[in-house]
Amino acid sequence: MIRWRLAKPLRERIRAGHPWIYDRALALAHAPACAAGDVVEIADADGAVALAFADPASPIRARVLAEPGTTLDAAWTRARTESAAARRVRDPLLVGCTGRRLIHGEGDACPGLVVDAYAGEPPGEQVPSGYAGESGSETTAVIVFDGPAAAAFWRPRLPDVLAGLERGGVAIEHAWLRMNQRTGGGERGGEAVRGDPPAEIAIAEDEARFGVDVRRGQKTGFFLDQRDNRRTIRRHAAGAQVLNVFAYTGGFSLHAALGGAAHVTSVDVARPAIDALARNVALSGLALDAHELVAEDAFEFFARSAARGRRWDLVIVDPPSFAPSERARPAALTAYRRLVQHALEAVAPGGRFALASCSSHVTEADLLDIVAHLTPVARLRASAGAASDHPVLPAFPEGRYLKFLFFDLA
Ligand SMILES: C[S@@+](CC[C@H](N)C(=O)[O-])C[C@H]1O[C@@H](n2cnc3c(N)ncnc32)[C@H](O)[C@@H]1O
Questions:
Q1: Residue 187 Cα, ligand 1 centroid: separation in angstroms?
Q2: Number of neighbours of residue 403 by Cβ within 10 angstroms
Q3: Is residue 218 part of a domain?
Q4: What atom of ligand 1 comes closest to residue 300's alpha carbon?
Q5: Do 335 and 357 touch, CB atoms closer than 8 A?
Q6: Rounded to two decimals, what is the model's pTM?
Q7: For residue 122, what pLDDT is reported?
Protein backbone atom coordinates (compact mmCIF):
# COMPACT_ATOMS: atom_id res chain seq x y z
CA MET A 1 0.00 0.00 0.00
CA ILE A 2 1.23 3.51 -0.81
CA ARG A 3 2.30 5.52 2.22
CA TRP A 4 2.00 9.32 2.32
CA ARG A 5 3.95 11.23 4.95
CA LEU A 6 2.42 14.13 6.84
CA ALA A 7 4.39 17.36 6.59
CA LYS A 8 2.48 18.89 9.51
CA PRO A 9 1.78 17.65 13.06
CA LEU A 10 -1.78 16.47 12.41
CA ARG A 11 -1.80 13.09 14.19
CA GLU A 12 -3.96 14.31 17.10
CA ARG A 13 -6.37 16.18 14.83
CA ILE A 14 -6.88 13.18 12.58
CA ARG A 15 -7.28 10.87 15.57
CA ALA A 16 -9.92 13.30 16.95
CA GLY A 17 -11.93 12.76 13.79
CA HIS A 18 -10.94 15.46 11.28
CA PRO A 19 -11.36 13.61 7.99
CA TRP A 20 -9.69 15.92 5.43
CA ILE A 21 -5.95 16.06 4.69
CA TYR A 22 -4.94 18.93 2.41
CA ASP A 23 -2.12 18.70 -0.15
CA ARG A 24 -0.10 21.30 1.78
CA ALA A 25 -0.17 19.06 4.87
CA LEU A 26 1.55 16.20 3.02
CA ALA A 27 5.16 15.68 1.90
CA LEU A 28 4.32 14.66 -1.65
CA ALA A 29 7.47 15.71 -3.56
CA HIS A 30 8.82 12.13 -3.81
CA ALA A 31 5.59 10.29 -3.07
CA PRO A 32 4.60 7.52 -5.49
CA ALA A 33 1.70 8.41 -7.77
CA CYS A 34 -1.68 6.81 -7.24
CA ALA A 35 -5.12 6.94 -8.81
CA ALA A 36 -8.25 8.70 -7.54
CA GLY A 37 -9.92 6.51 -4.91
CA ASP A 38 -6.86 4.36 -4.15
CA VAL A 39 -6.40 3.59 -0.47
CA VAL A 40 -3.24 5.14 1.01
CA GLU A 41 -1.72 4.94 4.48
CA ILE A 42 -1.13 8.32 6.13
CA ALA A 43 1.92 8.30 8.40
CA ASP A 44 4.19 10.56 10.41
CA ALA A 45 7.57 10.01 12.05
CA ASP A 46 5.92 7.88 14.75
CA GLY A 47 4.28 5.52 12.25
CA ALA A 48 0.89 5.02 10.62
CA VAL A 49 -1.92 7.46 11.53
CA ALA A 50 -4.89 6.48 9.31
CA LEU A 51 -6.11 4.89 6.11
CA ALA A 52 -7.58 7.29 3.56
CA PHE A 53 -8.64 7.38 -0.05
CA ALA A 54 -6.51 9.52 -2.34
CA ASP A 55 -7.80 12.40 -4.44
CA PRO A 56 -4.76 13.43 -6.53
CA ALA A 57 -6.62 16.20 -8.40
CA SER A 58 -8.02 17.96 -5.34
CA PRO A 59 -6.51 20.24 -2.68
CA ILE A 60 -8.29 17.91 -0.23
CA ARG A 61 -5.73 15.26 -1.19
CA ALA A 62 -6.93 12.46 1.11
CA ARG A 63 -10.11 11.64 3.04
CA VAL A 64 -9.75 9.52 6.15
CA LEU A 65 -11.56 6.20 6.21
CA ALA A 66 -10.32 4.18 9.17
CA GLU A 67 -7.61 3.34 11.68
CA PRO A 68 -4.36 1.96 10.28
CA GLY A 69 -4.46 -1.81 9.81
CA THR A 70 -8.23 -1.91 9.15
CA THR A 71 -9.29 -4.31 6.40
CA LEU A 72 -11.58 -2.27 4.15
CA ASP A 73 -13.62 -5.24 3.04
CA ALA A 74 -17.35 -5.85 2.54
CA ALA A 75 -17.90 -6.33 6.29
CA TRP A 76 -16.29 -2.93 6.99
CA THR A 77 -18.56 -1.17 4.47
CA ARG A 78 -21.65 -2.90 5.80
CA ALA A 79 -20.84 -2.06 9.42
CA ARG A 80 -20.40 1.66 8.57
CA THR A 81 -23.66 2.00 6.70
CA GLU A 82 -25.59 -0.21 9.11
CA SER A 83 -24.80 2.10 12.00
CA ALA A 84 -25.70 5.18 9.91
CA ALA A 85 -29.13 3.69 9.11
CA ALA A 86 -29.68 2.62 12.72
CA ARG A 87 -29.08 6.21 13.90
CA ARG A 88 -31.95 7.35 11.64
CA VAL A 89 -34.30 4.57 12.70
CA ARG A 90 -34.01 5.61 16.34
CA ASP A 91 -34.29 9.39 15.63
CA PRO A 92 -37.60 10.74 16.99
CA LEU A 93 -37.30 13.89 14.83
CA LEU A 94 -37.80 11.75 11.73
CA VAL A 95 -41.18 10.40 12.80
CA GLY A 96 -43.77 11.42 10.24
CA CYS A 97 -41.15 12.16 7.58
CA THR A 98 -40.72 9.79 4.63
CA GLY A 99 -37.70 11.63 3.18
CA ARG A 100 -34.47 11.18 5.11
CA ARG A 101 -30.73 11.40 4.65
CA LEU A 102 -29.32 7.96 5.46
CA ILE A 103 -25.63 8.69 4.90
CA HIS A 104 -24.23 12.18 5.34
CA GLY A 105 -20.68 11.72 4.06
CA GLU A 106 -18.01 12.65 6.57
CA GLY A 107 -20.62 13.08 9.34
CA ASP A 108 -21.37 9.35 9.10
CA ALA A 109 -17.71 8.33 8.63
CA CYS A 110 -18.36 7.65 4.94
CA PRO A 111 -16.39 10.50 3.32
CA GLY A 112 -17.70 11.69 -0.02
CA LEU A 113 -20.83 9.51 0.04
CA VAL A 114 -24.40 10.79 0.35
CA VAL A 115 -27.47 8.56 0.38
CA ASP A 116 -30.97 10.02 0.74
CA ALA A 117 -34.09 7.87 0.96
CA TYR A 118 -37.59 8.76 -0.19
CA ALA A 119 -40.54 6.57 0.66
CA GLY A 120 -43.53 7.05 -1.55
CA GLU A 121 -47.00 7.59 -0.23
CA PRO A 122 -50.16 7.78 -2.28
CA PRO A 123 -51.47 11.40 -2.15
CA GLY A 124 -54.18 11.99 0.40
CA GLU A 125 -53.10 9.26 2.82
CA GLN A 126 -52.94 9.82 6.54
CA VAL A 127 -49.70 11.10 8.03
CA PRO A 128 -47.61 8.02 8.75
CA SER A 129 -47.20 7.24 12.42
CA GLY A 130 -43.91 5.36 12.06
CA TYR A 131 -40.60 6.01 10.40
CA ALA A 132 -40.02 6.36 6.67
CA GLY A 133 -40.09 3.00 4.99
CA GLU A 134 -42.25 1.42 7.66
CA SER A 135 -45.50 2.58 6.10
CA GLY A 136 -45.48 -0.32 3.67
CA SER A 137 -44.62 1.98 0.76
CA GLU A 138 -41.51 1.47 -1.33
CA THR A 139 -38.30 3.30 -0.57
CA THR A 140 -35.97 4.74 -3.21
CA ALA A 141 -32.37 5.47 -2.22
CA VAL A 142 -30.63 8.27 -4.12
CA ILE A 143 -26.85 8.04 -4.10
CA VAL A 144 -24.44 10.92 -4.80
CA PHE A 145 -20.64 10.90 -4.80
CA ASP A 146 -18.75 14.05 -3.87
CA GLY A 147 -16.23 14.04 -6.73
CA PRO A 148 -14.42 11.47 -8.86
CA ALA A 149 -12.22 10.05 -6.06
CA ALA A 150 -15.26 9.36 -3.87
CA ALA A 151 -16.92 7.77 -6.92
CA ALA A 152 -13.90 5.55 -7.56
CA PHE A 153 -13.77 4.42 -3.91
CA TRP A 154 -17.50 3.91 -3.24
CA ARG A 155 -18.87 2.77 -6.61
CA PRO A 156 -17.58 -0.84 -6.35
CA ARG A 157 -18.82 -0.95 -2.76
CA LEU A 158 -22.43 0.08 -3.50
CA PRO A 159 -23.93 -3.41 -3.05
CA ASP A 160 -22.44 -3.51 0.46
CA VAL A 161 -23.53 0.09 1.16
CA LEU A 162 -27.13 -0.92 0.44
CA ALA A 163 -26.82 -4.23 2.31
CA GLY A 164 -25.58 -2.38 5.42
CA LEU A 165 -28.44 0.16 5.24
CA GLU A 166 -30.92 -2.70 5.10
CA ARG A 167 -29.31 -4.42 8.07
CA GLY A 168 -29.63 -1.09 9.89
CA GLY A 169 -33.41 -1.23 9.43
CA VAL A 170 -34.21 0.52 6.13
CA ALA A 171 -35.66 -1.66 3.37
CA ILE A 172 -34.62 -0.30 -0.05
CA GLU A 173 -36.61 -1.34 -3.13
CA HIS A 174 -35.03 1.03 -5.63
CA ALA A 175 -31.71 2.84 -5.85
CA TRP A 176 -30.76 5.63 -8.23
CA LEU A 177 -27.16 6.77 -8.67
CA ARG A 178 -27.14 10.47 -9.56
CA MET A 179 -24.27 11.70 -11.68
CA ASN A 180 -23.19 15.31 -11.68
CA GLN A 181 -20.63 17.36 -13.57
CA ARG A 182 -17.87 16.30 -11.20
CA THR A 183 -18.59 12.58 -11.27
CA GLY A 184 -19.36 12.17 -14.99
CA GLY A 185 -22.55 12.68 -16.97
CA GLY A 186 -24.75 9.91 -18.17
CA GLU A 187 -27.53 10.80 -20.55
CA ARG A 188 -30.31 10.54 -18.01
CA GLY A 189 -28.28 12.18 -15.27
CA GLY A 190 -27.73 8.88 -13.55
CA GLU A 191 -28.58 5.21 -13.54
CA ALA A 192 -30.66 2.70 -11.62
CA VAL A 193 -28.49 0.47 -9.44
CA ARG A 194 -31.46 -1.40 -7.97
CA GLY A 195 -35.06 -1.84 -9.12
CA ASP A 196 -36.81 0.76 -11.24
CA PRO A 197 -36.98 4.08 -9.36
CA PRO A 198 -40.25 5.97 -9.92
CA ALA A 199 -40.09 9.32 -11.74
CA GLU A 200 -41.71 11.16 -8.83
CA ILE A 201 -42.23 10.19 -5.20
CA ALA A 202 -44.79 11.91 -2.97
CA ILE A 203 -43.12 12.19 0.45
CA ALA A 204 -44.54 13.32 3.79
CA GLU A 205 -42.85 15.86 6.04
CA ASP A 206 -45.18 16.11 9.01
CA GLU A 207 -48.52 17.19 7.47
CA ALA A 208 -46.87 18.61 4.33
CA ARG A 209 -46.59 16.58 1.11
CA PHE A 210 -43.95 17.09 -1.57
CA GLY A 211 -43.47 15.48 -4.95
CA VAL A 212 -39.76 14.61 -5.28
CA ASP A 213 -38.17 14.21 -8.71
CA VAL A 214 -35.10 12.11 -7.90
CA ARG A 215 -33.69 12.33 -11.44
CA ARG A 216 -34.03 16.01 -12.32
CA GLY A 217 -34.74 17.79 -9.02
CA GLN A 218 -32.07 19.84 -7.26
CA LYS A 219 -29.71 18.06 -4.86
CA THR A 220 -31.19 14.54 -4.60
CA GLY A 221 -34.64 15.96 -5.39
CA PHE A 222 -35.37 17.74 -2.09
CA PHE A 223 -33.61 19.92 0.50
CA LEU A 224 -33.87 17.53 3.44
CA ASP A 225 -31.38 19.60 5.44
CA GLN A 226 -33.90 22.40 6.16
CA ARG A 227 -36.51 20.08 7.72
CA ASP A 228 -36.15 21.26 11.33
CA ASN A 229 -35.92 24.92 10.24
CA ARG A 230 -39.14 24.53 8.27
CA ARG A 231 -40.71 23.34 11.53
CA THR A 232 -39.42 26.50 13.24
CA ILE A 233 -41.09 28.63 10.57
CA ARG A 234 -44.31 26.70 11.03
CA ARG A 235 -44.36 27.61 14.73
CA HIS A 236 -43.98 31.33 13.92
CA ALA A 237 -46.33 31.67 10.97
CA ALA A 238 -49.81 31.94 12.52
CA GLY A 239 -51.75 34.84 11.00
CA ALA A 240 -48.71 36.17 9.14
CA GLN A 241 -48.24 37.47 5.61
CA VAL A 242 -45.19 35.41 4.61
CA LEU A 243 -42.61 35.92 1.85
CA ASN A 244 -40.45 32.89 0.98
CA VAL A 245 -37.64 33.81 -1.42
CA PHE A 246 -35.60 31.03 -3.13
CA ALA A 247 -38.60 28.82 -2.39
CA TYR A 248 -37.73 25.77 -4.54
CA THR A 249 -40.75 23.41 -4.33
CA GLY A 250 -42.22 25.21 -1.34
CA GLY A 251 -40.60 23.67 1.74
CA PHE A 252 -40.94 26.76 3.93
CA SER A 253 -44.09 27.94 2.14
CA LEU A 254 -46.11 24.82 2.90
CA HIS A 255 -45.01 24.69 6.52
CA ALA A 256 -45.88 28.37 6.93
CA ALA A 257 -49.34 27.68 5.48
CA LEU A 258 -49.80 24.66 7.76
CA GLY A 259 -48.78 26.88 10.69
CA GLY A 260 -51.70 29.19 9.89
CA ALA A 261 -50.12 31.88 7.71
CA ALA A 262 -52.75 34.24 6.30
CA HIS A 263 -51.02 34.38 2.90
CA VAL A 264 -47.72 33.10 1.44
CA THR A 265 -45.76 34.61 -1.46
CA SER A 266 -43.15 32.22 -2.90
CA VAL A 267 -40.40 33.28 -5.31
CA ASP A 268 -37.95 31.10 -7.26
CA VAL A 269 -36.17 31.71 -10.55
CA ALA A 270 -36.78 28.09 -11.64
CA ARG A 271 -40.19 27.74 -13.31
CA PRO A 272 -40.24 23.92 -12.81
CA ALA A 273 -39.77 24.45 -9.05
CA ILE A 274 -42.67 26.94 -8.91
CA ASP A 275 -44.89 24.56 -10.92
CA ALA A 276 -43.99 21.76 -8.47
CA LEU A 277 -44.80 24.12 -5.58
CA ALA A 278 -48.32 24.61 -6.94
CA ARG A 279 -48.76 20.82 -7.14
CA ASN A 280 -47.42 20.43 -3.59
CA VAL A 281 -49.95 22.93 -2.23
CA ALA A 282 -52.73 20.76 -3.65
CA LEU A 283 -51.02 17.52 -2.55
CA SER A 284 -50.95 18.87 1.01
CA GLY A 285 -54.65 19.67 0.95
CA LEU A 286 -54.05 23.44 1.14
CA ALA A 287 -56.00 26.16 -0.67
CA LEU A 288 -54.09 27.61 -3.62
CA ASP A 289 -55.82 30.99 -3.30
CA ALA A 290 -53.76 31.75 -0.17
CA HIS A 291 -50.57 31.45 -2.27
CA GLU A 292 -48.91 33.83 -4.71
CA LEU A 293 -46.35 31.98 -6.86
CA VAL A 294 -43.67 33.97 -8.65
CA ALA A 295 -41.08 32.57 -11.10
CA GLU A 296 -38.55 35.41 -11.11
CA ASP A 297 -35.02 36.36 -10.12
CA ALA A 298 -34.99 37.20 -6.41
CA PHE A 299 -33.18 40.51 -6.79
CA GLU A 300 -35.58 41.68 -9.50
CA PHE A 301 -38.55 40.60 -7.39
CA PHE A 302 -37.24 42.55 -4.38
CA ALA A 303 -36.63 45.65 -6.51
CA ARG A 304 -40.14 45.46 -7.98
CA SER A 305 -41.73 44.94 -4.56
CA ALA A 306 -39.80 47.82 -2.98
CA ALA A 307 -40.96 50.13 -5.79
CA ARG A 308 -44.55 49.19 -4.92
CA GLY A 309 -43.95 49.48 -1.16
CA ARG A 310 -44.88 45.86 -0.45
CA ARG A 311 -44.10 44.46 3.02
CA TRP A 312 -44.52 41.06 4.73
CA ASP A 313 -44.67 40.04 8.42
CA LEU A 314 -42.23 37.17 7.96
CA VAL A 315 -39.54 37.06 5.26
CA ILE A 316 -37.51 33.88 4.61
CA VAL A 317 -34.38 33.95 2.46
CA ASP A 318 -32.65 30.63 1.64
CA PRO A 319 -30.38 31.28 -1.36
CA PRO A 320 -28.15 28.78 -3.17
CA SER A 321 -24.50 28.68 -2.14
CA PHE A 322 -22.95 31.96 -3.28
CA ALA A 323 -19.49 30.73 -2.18
CA PRO A 324 -18.61 27.29 -3.55
CA SER A 325 -14.93 27.95 -2.73
CA GLU A 326 -12.87 30.15 -0.41
CA ARG A 327 -11.90 32.26 -3.44
CA ALA A 328 -15.56 33.12 -4.06
CA ARG A 329 -16.02 34.35 -0.47
CA PRO A 330 -15.63 38.13 -1.00
CA ALA A 331 -18.13 38.14 -3.89
CA ALA A 332 -20.47 35.94 -1.86
CA LEU A 333 -20.38 38.31 1.12
CA THR A 334 -21.27 41.19 -1.21
CA ALA A 335 -24.22 39.19 -2.58
CA TYR A 336 -25.43 38.32 0.94
CA ARG A 337 -25.20 41.98 1.94
CA ARG A 338 -27.35 43.02 -1.04
CA LEU A 339 -29.81 40.27 -0.34
CA VAL A 340 -30.15 41.02 3.37
CA GLN A 341 -30.63 44.70 2.59
CA HIS A 342 -33.45 43.87 0.19
CA ALA A 343 -35.02 41.41 2.64
CA LEU A 344 -34.92 43.86 5.55
CA GLU A 345 -36.69 46.46 3.40
CA ALA A 346 -39.42 43.91 2.74
CA VAL A 347 -40.16 43.18 6.41
CA ALA A 348 -43.12 45.04 7.89
CA PRO A 349 -42.46 47.03 11.08
CA GLY A 350 -42.21 44.60 14.01
CA GLY A 351 -41.87 41.64 11.64
CA ARG A 352 -39.49 38.69 11.50
CA PHE A 353 -36.68 37.62 9.18
CA ALA A 354 -35.11 34.19 8.58
CA LEU A 355 -31.76 34.02 6.79
CA ALA A 356 -30.05 30.81 5.66
CA SER A 357 -26.70 30.10 4.06
CA CYS A 358 -25.56 26.72 2.78
CA SER A 359 -21.95 27.69 2.13
CA SER A 360 -19.31 26.44 4.56
CA HIS A 361 -17.12 29.38 3.47
CA VAL A 362 -19.60 31.89 4.92
CA THR A 363 -19.82 31.64 8.71
CA GLU A 364 -22.58 32.46 11.15
CA ALA A 365 -20.38 35.33 12.39
CA ASP A 366 -20.26 36.71 8.82
CA LEU A 367 -24.06 36.66 8.57
CA LEU A 368 -24.55 38.25 12.00
CA ASP A 369 -22.06 40.95 11.04
CA ILE A 370 -23.97 41.72 7.83
CA VAL A 371 -27.30 41.98 9.67
CA ALA A 372 -25.80 44.06 12.49
CA HIS A 373 -24.38 46.59 10.03
CA LEU A 374 -27.68 46.94 8.17
CA THR A 375 -30.09 47.32 11.07
CA PRO A 376 -29.86 48.17 14.77
CA VAL A 377 -33.24 46.60 15.60
CA ALA A 378 -32.58 42.91 14.78
CA ARG A 379 -32.71 40.46 17.70
CA LEU A 380 -31.54 36.88 17.13
CA ARG A 381 -34.32 34.55 18.30
CA ALA A 382 -32.95 31.22 17.06
CA SER A 383 -29.85 29.86 15.40
CA ALA A 384 -29.68 26.38 13.93
CA GLY A 385 -27.92 24.19 11.42
CA ALA A 386 -28.97 21.27 9.27
CA ALA A 387 -31.57 18.70 10.33
CA SER A 388 -30.77 15.83 12.66
CA ASP A 389 -30.09 13.36 9.85
CA HIS A 390 -27.15 15.56 8.75
CA PRO A 391 -24.79 14.88 11.69
CA VAL A 392 -21.64 16.95 12.25
CA LEU A 393 -18.36 15.63 13.66
CA PRO A 394 -17.21 17.82 16.58
CA ALA A 395 -13.65 17.84 15.17
CA PHE A 396 -14.85 18.93 11.72
CA PRO A 397 -16.35 22.44 11.77
CA GLU A 398 -16.22 22.49 7.94
CA GLY A 399 -19.11 20.03 8.11
CA ARG A 400 -21.39 22.75 9.55
CA TYR A 401 -22.24 24.12 6.13
CA LEU A 402 -25.86 25.17 6.80
CA LYS A 403 -26.70 28.19 8.94
CA PHE A 404 -30.23 29.30 9.76
CA LEU A 405 -30.76 32.53 11.71
CA PHE A 406 -34.15 33.78 12.84
CA PHE A 407 -34.54 37.43 13.85
CA ASP A 408 -37.19 39.66 15.37
CA LEU A 409 -37.06 43.14 13.89
CA ALA A 410 -38.61 45.17 16.64
C1 LIG B 1 -31.22 26.33 -1.21
S2 LIG B 1 -32.48 26.19 -2.42
C3 LIG B 1 -33.93 26.54 -1.48
C4 LIG B 1 -34.53 25.35 -0.77
C5 LIG B 1 -35.86 25.59 -0.13
N6 LIG B 1 -35.81 26.63 0.85
C7 LIG B 1 -36.47 24.32 0.47
O8 LIG B 1 -36.69 24.28 1.71
O9 LIG B 1 -36.73 23.37 -0.26
C10 LIG B 1 -32.21 27.61 -3.39
C11 LIG B 1 -33.23 27.89 -4.50
O12 LIG B 1 -32.89 29.17 -5.05
C13 LIG B 1 -33.26 29.17 -6.43
N14 LIG B 1 -32.50 30.27 -7.06
C15 LIG B 1 -31.22 30.28 -7.46
N16 LIG B 1 -30.89 31.51 -7.92
C17 LIG B 1 -31.99 32.28 -7.81
C18 LIG B 1 -32.28 33.64 -8.10
N19 LIG B 1 -31.35 34.46 -8.61
N20 LIG B 1 -33.51 34.11 -7.84
C21 LIG B 1 -34.48 33.30 -7.31
N22 LIG B 1 -34.25 32.00 -7.03
C23 LIG B 1 -33.03 31.50 -7.26
C24 LIG B 1 -32.96 27.77 -6.90
O25 LIG B 1 -33.77 27.47 -8.03
C26 LIG B 1 -33.31 26.93 -5.65
O27 LIG B 1 -34.61 26.44 -5.77
A1: 25
A2: 23
A3: no
A4: 20
A5: no
A6: 0.94
A7: 45
